[in-house]
């Protein structure tokens, strides 16, 4: 039964604690509905940024620093469903990143979707300007803390699209702009499940860096810097997972693949 507690109007430390309790709650445990904790569209971007900043500060105190940002473009299925007109972004933390090939417990971590991604590495060039230096395929696991999925873009971004973990390939390839006009395949136990295409995102390297820099400033209170990651995702329709298996993402001629096993 839905709680009758009034929605929290302003994000504060207690709001973050309640939200984090949601991520570790036991089945059947009664907690405040996640929609009552996260910012809503009427709260505006300021409150969303405040939520992310407080979340980042809380994780930093536990040696779980920001390692980058994730971008979800407005042409993805979920963003079109929510009628988004701009890309959404949220912070990535050190503990979100799992080694490639890792064994992940699906039920214990409440994973219900898998997504392909492309991880980009930011570095300084010879003129001390930031650029995307290399890339690799990534596999992203998520589980909605809402009943099904976020009802609006603000909630999607605040909840980081239900992110549970992501894994990057161990092999990084020198950056090529053609990656933003390419296709890749998501497989389970070697069988193709989805084909993802980056061209629908309509992103450029300059736009990616601008969006990531803006997100980093609002979430972490610092500039985007050398060594940070940018994770692009949302290149195919939602892919629910109801059983385990070896999930992988292959970029074909653009080099490399990555896999993780759900138990």
From TrEMBL:
<protein>
    <recommendedName>
        <fullName>Fumarylacetoacetase-like C-terminal domain-containing protein</fullName>
    </recommendedName>
</protein>
<dbReference type="InterPro" id="IPR036663">
    <property type="entry name" value="Fumarylacetoacetase_C_sf"/>
</dbReference>
<dbReference type="GO" id="GO:0005737">
    <property type="term" value="C:cytoplasm"/>
</dbReference>
<dbReference type="InterPro" id="IPR050772">
    <property type="entry name" value="Hydratase-Decarb/MhpD_sf"/>
</dbReference>
<dbReference type="GO" id="GO:0008684">
    <property type="term" value="F:2-oxopent-4-enoate hydratase activity"/>
</dbReference>
């Amino acid at each position: 039964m839905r709680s009758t507690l009034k929605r929290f109007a302003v994000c504060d430390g207690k709001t973050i604690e309640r939200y984090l309790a949601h991520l570790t709650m036991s089945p059947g445990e009664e907690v405040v509905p996640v929609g009552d904790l996260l910012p809503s569209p009427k709260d505006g971007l300021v409150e969303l940024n405040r939520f992310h900043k407080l979340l980042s500060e809380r994780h930093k105190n536990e040696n779980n620093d920001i390692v980058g940002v994730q971008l979800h473009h407005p042409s993805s299925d979920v963003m079109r469903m929510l009628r988004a007109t701009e890309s959404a972004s949220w912070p990535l933390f050190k503990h979100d990143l799992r080694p490639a090939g890792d064994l992940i417990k699906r039920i214990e971590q409440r994973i219900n979707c898998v997504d392909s991604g492309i991880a980009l590495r930011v570095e300084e060039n010879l003129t001390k300007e930031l650029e995307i230096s290399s890339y690799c395929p990534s596999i992203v696991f998520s589980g909605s803390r809402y009943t099904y999925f976020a009802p609006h873009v603000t909630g999607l971004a605040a909840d980081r699209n239900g992110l549970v973990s992501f894994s990057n390939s161990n092999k990084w390839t020198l950056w090529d702009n053609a990656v933003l006009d390419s296709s890749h395949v998501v497989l389970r136990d070697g069988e193709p499940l989805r084909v993802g295409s980056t061209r629908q995102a309509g992103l450029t390297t300059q736009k990616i860096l601008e969006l990531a820099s803006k997100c980093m400033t609002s979430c972490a209170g610092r500039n985007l810097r050398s060594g940070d990651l940018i994770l692009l995702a949302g290149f195919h329709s939602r892919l629910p997972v109801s059983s385990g298996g070896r999930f992988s993402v292959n970029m074909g001629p653009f080099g490399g693949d990555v896999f993780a096993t759900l138990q």
